[in-house]
TrEMBL record:
Keyword Membrane: yes
GO annotations of cellular component type: extracellular space
Species this chain originates from: Phyllotreta striolata (Striped flea beetle)
Keywords per UniProt: Membrane, Transmembrane, Transmembrane helix
CDD domains per record: ALP_like (cd16021)
Pfam families membership: DUF229 (PF02995)
Transmembrane regions listed in the UniProt entry: 44-63
UniProt protein name: Uncharacterized protein
Matching InterPro entries: Alkaline_phosphatase_core_sf, DUF229
Length: 671
């Protein structure tokens, strides 16, 4: 959004009109009739505040536009002027891939950007206790909220709880709570990992809370004082690169000031979180995972080679944690692990805590546990973990994923901006990341809502954000690798590349200059520290046509061919639902939008890819699909996944398959 000269003149004209009306001093009475100035004359002092307000409104509008321009200018981290950064209309402009520049405040997008409502945790009742690295302590300012007039009559105790290993076929969501409740007064040291606090007053329970800690464990074989490079990966679910800049400006600006490197061409490779994070954590597609180590939904993930296992083998302590973990990476319609996969695991705490004291539930997530915001509790745990590891000089690999803040709402990340800024700033100010590679990232942009039915919303959904903040010592020692990373900010990159980057960080000896002279560009995954060829295409990077943002396209009319292509999508959905008699057969209701990609030549004929947005009945579901046809025949082929753009809610409660829930409309819902 730019502040043009025509807008300026228009606003000036408006202000002068206000002044002219004030000078004319002609007003309306209660019947709407003009009142002659010879009959009614108001003192000049009456008009001064009105004139002042009019001028203020004008300048406020000007400043709003100027702020928006500054907001937009913060979008890019590479050198050069703001005008140069768009590369004549492109964010990425290489022979193999051109990704168009998109204004984050485009008029088609601005209508969806609204101030979010901050959650009211526990109906406004604050926590009664807080914690630090090793203890919990009473917040005396909270006592009146619990009607406690005599704190000596407050009786509190805590019980430890811990993960229970699931048996064959069980889901990985079991905990055991200690039978003994340990009494304490006001504050107490804690040696356990997870605890429940219970307080009574006048023989009535007035407070239940949970707290997590990071006691030392599994340190055998971990060399203290080891100068291995720590790796800390922090994820924020469903936030596109542009939406991060729109919603979390303070965090973005701070990371830029600290010289974090942003990957401008990071393109997702699958639909939702799971198929985009499995390539990061294993280097495999979901289908490859099933054929190698996870045969079915009833199996646990223990046999899969997650990257944290490599770090563990190399002498690191490991940690994995999610919030909103009921729908977590390994838990939603899946069985999780038999053996705990990392040394520390916050997600078991989160699951139990949300079930016990979760509140302010909106759409898919609890936003609060007790009186605390859940996303802030995750950040606090990360801070505790990092501080503990640094205090003991223990090398670590950490993978954390936050969904409670951002999973369901385009605008909610704005609420977390200040907290993420404080979180990163505190870690850096206290020099807790001096020997740590920090990766801040997302999996995809928002996948549903009105914004997804715009072209830009579709593109943003495929372009999540990735930042790398590396210690100065790393940048100096591995200068060539770091320079390659900066070059690769303008290359097409994927989750497979991030996986290769993690492998390099697990063994930084591989980043010596002599090892970086040759990079096998035929591999689907190339480390960010190895220069990626500018001729790289989506096909080279294992990105299907449906998810590729490099393809240039144009909107087209709804022709007979387009309609038949849309019917083929609905037929494909019905085919996937065969065998599920409880699901209704779908029919094409409307083709909402159609775009055609630039034709590709294969042999002696052209291939045409249509990107379609369509609605089905009876479920009024909105789907998006890429359909391929050729000038050689009239057949249609679905390329990649069929995406669901609006929420399915309770429409598919009659089935459990997490893939097919997107499509099923239970027959019992039919009128």
């Amino acid at each position: 959004m730019k502040f043009s000269m025509s807008e300026y003149k228009q606003k000036s004209k408006y202000t002068m009109s206000v002044i002219y009306l004030l000078q004319k001093d002609t007003r309306c009475n209660t019947n709407g009739m003009e009142v002659d100035e010879t009959k009614v004359r108001v003192p000049l002092l009456f008009w001064i505040p009105i004139l002042f307000c009019g001028v203020l409104l004008f300048f406020a509008d000007v400043l709003e536009h100027q702020f928006t321009i500054r907001f937009t200018k913060s979008l890019f981290t590479t050198s050069g002027s703001f005008e140069d950064r768009s590369l004549a209309g492109f964010t990425i402009s290489n022979p193999g891939c051109k990704i168009p520049y998109m204004d984050p405040f485009d008029e088609n997008i601005a209508q969806f950007i609204k101030p979010p409502s901050k959650p009211m945790c526990n109906n406004g009742k604050p926590p009664l206790f807080a914690s630090n690295l090793t203890s919990i302590f009473l917040l005396e300012t909270s006592l009146p909220k619990y009607n406690v007039s005599d704190e000596n009559e407050l009786k509190c105790c805590y019980k430890p709880f811990w993960r229970r290993e699931p048996e064959n076929g069980e889901s990985d969501n079991k905990v055991v709570v200690d039978s003994e409740c340990h009494a304490f007064q006001k504050n107490t040291d804690i040696t356990e990992e997870f605890i429940i606090v219970n307080c009574t007053y006048d023989n009535t329970t007035i407070y239940i809370d949970t707290f997590s800690f990071v006691p030392l464990k599994n340190t055998t074989g971990i060399g203290t004082g080891d100068k291995k490079l720590n790796v800390l990966l922090i994820g924020l679910d469903a936030v596109s690169r542009l939406n991060l800049h729109r919603q979390m400006l303070k965090t973005v600006n701070y990371l830029q000031e600290q010289e974090a490197v942003e990957l401008l061409g990071y393109n997702k490779v699958g639909d939702n979180t799971f198929p985009n994070l499995m390539p990061v954590l294993t280097g495999l597609f979901e289908e490859e995972l099933k054929s190698s180590c996870w045969p079915s939904l009833t199996d646990h993930f223990d046999n899969c080679s997650f990257v944290w296992k490599l770090f563990k083998e190399r002498g690191y302590l490991t940690v994995y944690g999610e919030d909103a973990s009921w729908m977590g990476l390994f838990n939603y319609q899946r069985k999780g692990f038999r053996k705990q996969t990392t040394d520390y695991a916050y997600n078991y705490f989160n699951r139990f805590s949300e079930e016990l004291i979760g509140n302010s539930h909106v759409m898919n997530v609890f936003q609060c546990e007790g009186g605390r915001l859940i996303y802030k509790d995750l950040l606090d745990y990360i801070s505790k973990f990092v501080a503990t590891m640094n205090e003991k000089s223990l090398p670590y690999f950490g993978f954390f994923w936050g969904a409670s803040l951002s999973h369901d709402n385009l605008n909610m990340p704005n609420i977390g901006d200040q907290d993420y800024y404080i979180f990163f700033k505190k870690l850096l100010d206290e020099k807790l990341l001096d020997n740590t590679a920090l990766i801040f990232m997302s999996d995809h942009g928002i996948r549903w809502g009105d914004i997804r039915q715009t072209f830009q919303g579709r593109m943003e959904e495929r372009l999540p954000f990735v930042y790398l903040l590396l210690p100065k010592s790393f940048r100096q020692k591995h200068f060539v690798a770091y320079e390659n990373l900066k070059v690769n900010t303008r290359r097409l990159t994927t989750p497979f590349d991030l996986h290769e980057t993690l492998l390099d960080l697990a063994n930084t000896d591989l980043l010596d200059e002599e090892n970086l002279t040759y990079t096998n560009q035929s591999r689907r995954g190339i480390s960010f520290f190895r220069r990626i060829d500018k001729n790289r295409t989506c096909e080279d990077a294992a990105i299907t046509s449906h998810w590729c943002t490099c393809q240039q396209s144009e909107q087209i009319n709804i022709t007979y061919t387009v309609t038949e292509a849309a019917r083929s999508v609905v037929s494909n959905i019905n085919y996937m639902l065969r065998g599920y008699a409880q699901c209704a057969e779908l029919a094409l209701d409307e083709v909402i939008n159609a775009r055609i990609m630039r034709p590709q030549m294969t042999g002696d004929y052209k291939i045409f890819d249509y990107m379609l947005t369509l609605r089905t009945s009876p479920n009024q579901a909105v789907f998006e699909a890429t359909v391929r046809t050729t000038e050689k025949n009239n057949s249609f082929e679905i390329i990649g996944s069929i995406s669901r753009l609006n929420l399915y809610g309770k429409q598919s409660l009659c089935i459990t398959d997490f893939h097919l829930k997107l499509y099923c409309y239970c027959k019992k819902l039919l009128p």
